[in-house]
Design brief:
alpha+beta, conserved putative lor/sdh protein from methanococcus maripaludis s2 fold, Elongation Factor Tu (Ef-tu), domain 3, Helix Hairpins, six-stranded antiparallel barrel, four-stranded antiparallel sheet, 4 helices, 19 strands, 40% strand
């Protein structure tokens, strides 16, 4: 290709580009220019706007929690003595009231038998004196003493029965019994830990939350937990209770969430990833494209009374293609989403409202308004 031919092609391309530019300028500005010639003032800017909506801030809590059983107890004997029988094995399901461990109780049984004999004797004495009193053969004081003795022997029998019952360790509720280090023949006292008992058809996961969320997370809020040992298990639950104070060292407060454990796959003491979306304060929400940046930070262009207004806006949170902002605007206000290069504070504008999913460009809207 000769040099002359190359120059001719370049010139042709430049001419086409210039013509296109001139045509686009006439399309976008014909209305403005025509209006300017007619009334002698700056024509209104053509922009696309969208109504400001409102949305709540979503605070994502991601913390580590530790599980405990819904009900849990470490079992102890109410009295000291020698173990004569252990009625459970590790991880056995037991029912509430079942006798788990028995101590030697011969002395306590004898005390109960003796108290019953004394009670029978006191009862016979009292009945005899009561009959004699009706005939006037016995003084009132003698009758009253016999009645008091009867009451005392009843109390002695009850105390003896309590001491006998204390020789048995019973399950306070239904659950899974843990390991024990004791054997038949061992002696225990009231401080000796026998075994743990857990009711684990549900677990309580305990975790700490920053104090900034105090009042924003409450009973019934949903949580998701995943064991650190197995990420394939995801359990849903809800906040069971919230602590009453903030730890002054960590600046956090305690929260417990209840999660179901129907397959008994989870255990007390396990660590969990805890996730929860906390609903925060409501803010104006605008499309991401509406947020502009200048020397003073982020701002928006609003249309009020047909004029452009520059409004400073602080970004609070991004939610997909929308932005929550802290600004002096209200839901229903019109925010500019296209045509920013024409904006000047106080300038009159001619606008078209955008809708969700609207793909029309500013040039197309300008053609529609000018009839091009």
């Amino acid at each position: 290709m000769t040099l002359l031919r190359q120059l001719l092609i370049i010139g042709l391309i430049a001419a086409v580009a210039a013509g296109a530019w001139t045509y686009l300028g006439s399309v976008l500005g014909s209305a403005e220019i025509g209006a300017g010639k007619r009334n002698g003032k700056k024509p209104p800017a053509i922009v696309v706007v969208q109504e400001v909506a409102s949305a709540h801030e979503k605070i994502r809590v991601r913390v580590v929690g530790t599980a405990r059983a819904l009900r849990s107890a470490t079992l102890h004997s109410a009295s000291a003595g020698e173990i004569i029988r252990i009625n459970f094995t590790a991880d056995q399901q037991v029912t509430g009231g079942a006798v788990l461990l028995e101590l030697d109780s011969e002395a306590e049984q004898l005390a109960v038998d003796l108290a019953r004999i004394r009670l029978d004797d006191s009862r016979r004495t009292f009945e005899r004196l009561r009959r004699l009193k009706s005939s006037g053969a016995v003084a009132n004081s003698t009758h009253d003493d016999a009645q008091s003795a009867l009451k005392a022997t009843r109390i002695e029998l009850k105390r003896a029965e309590v001491n006998l019952a204390d020789r048995h360790v019973v399950a306070p509720f239904s659950g899974r019994i843990g390991l024990t280090e004791l054997d038949v023949g061992d002696r225990v006292d009231t401080d000796s830990a026998i075994a743990s008992l857990d009711q684990r058809e549900a677990l309580l996961v305990r975790f700490e939350v920053p104090e900034a969320l105090l009042g924003r997370i409450g009973k019934g809020d949903k949580v998701r937990v995943t064991p650190w040992s197995d990420r394939t298990i995801v359990a849903e639950g809800s906040v069971f209770d919230v602590g009453s104070r903030v730890n002054e060292q960590t600046r956090t407060f305690l929260v417990r969430a209840r999660i179901a454990n129907p397959n008994d796959a989870l255990r007390p003491g396990m660590s969990f990833r805890v996730a929860s979306d906390v609903i925060g304060q409501a803010y104006p929400v605008v499309p991401e494209i509406a947020v502009q940046w200048g020397g003073g930070g982020s701002f928006l262009w609003l249309i009020r009374d047909g004029k452009a207004h520059h409004v400073e806006a602080t970004i609070v949170q991004r939610q997909e293609a929308d932005i929550l902002v802290d600004a002096a605007i209200l839901p229903g206000d019109l925010v500019v989403v296209e045509g920013f290069h024409r904006m000047r504070d106080g300038r009159e504008v001619s606008f078209t409202k955008a809708t969700l999913g609207d793909k029309t460009t500013l040039g197309d809207k300008a053609k529609a308004k000018t009839g091009s």
